[in-house]
Amino acid sequence: MAKKVGIITSGGDAPGMNAAVRAVTRYGISLGYEIIGIKRGFKGLLDDEFQRLTLRSVSGIINTGGTMLHTGRCPETKTKTGLNRAVKTINDLNLSGLIIIGGDGSLAAGNAFSQKGVKVVNIPASIDNDIYGTDETIGYDTALNTAVEAIDKIRDTATSHDRIFVVEIMGREHGFLTLDVGLAAGCEYIVVPEIKPDMKKLAQELTKGKERGKTSEIIAFAEGCGSSNDFAKQVEKLTGLEVRVSNLGYIQRGGRPTARTRILASKFGYAAMNLFHKGQYNRLVCLASGQITSMPISQVIKRDKKFDEKTLKLLRSLSI
């Protein structure tokens, strides 16, 4: 098999994906590999959308958000027919294997491809930071900083009007981003999918805060907890206080990656290409206790990352 590796960014985009593509490409070329960029996620394998990546084609992308390869979700590859078509394309392109950059869906896809005999290395990229085995994912730090900056500005207007604000944060299944945003932005309360909120207690705490002279109170609300508007109406009814909602939405996915994100993405890209070169396939690159390491993909997809309840207690202790 030729020394030829395909690289894919799939699922939700995350700041720092381009930095990872750059690292894989440049280190791969230095090792003698030809790097083939597959466009629009796994759909590119079905629609024959590829490009050969060179040292110059990945120049100037380390500081850009999104992904130069574009991305998307591809339900077809979840079917037997679609998966077989994608594997045939990989074989027709004479690829040695794939390096896949993405979140939990990309991990599941990597596992499926590996079961079909495709050599795979996954790189975790997700603003949700919800992948088991790694302390941090590409894009998380950037999304965290974006959300915190937005809440800092929202607090200015909340203070001016003596209002409570419910700020909706991305996170359909997990509240990792909401938790850290809440701590970093000094939020009075957070609502996450992992823990059902005690509405009566929340209302009492918000009311006491106003009685103590608080001029603003911010609730960070993970999108996976339902309708933030309905939640705000319930808070307003229980407290009799004025509540407004702000949904940060997709701004959390975009923007220039922070230095931390760029460094992590570069290290992950280098490590992924190194694993592939050494013949260590079907693994996820991870950050654990400050060290870059890896785990078998088959072990990662079967386990859920634990929610940090100690940090939640810290947040509540500091929000009085």
Description:
The chain is an alpha/beta fold. Helices cover 42% and strands 18% of the residues. The protein contains 11 helices and 11 strands. The longest helix is centred in the middle third of the chain and has 22 residues, at 140-161. The chain is elongated and about 70 Å long. The mean pLDDT is 96.
Task: Name a few traits of the molecule.
11 strands, 11 helices, 320 residues, 42% helix, elongated, alpha/beta, seven-stranded mixed sheet
What are the low-pLDDT stretches, counting only 5+ consecutive residues below 50? none
Give the ordered list of helices and strands.
Answer: EHEHEHEHEHEHEHEHEHEEHH
What strand order characterises the main sheet? 3-2-1-4-5-10-11
Structural class: alpha/beta
Can you count the helices? Answer: 11
- Helix fraction bin: 40-55%
**Gyration radius, rounded:** 22 Å
Number of strands: 11
- Distance between the first and last residues' Cα: 62 Å
Average the pLDDT over all residues and give the rounded result: 96
Largest sheet: 7 strands, mixed
Strand content: 15-25%
- What overall form do the CA principal axes indicate? elongated
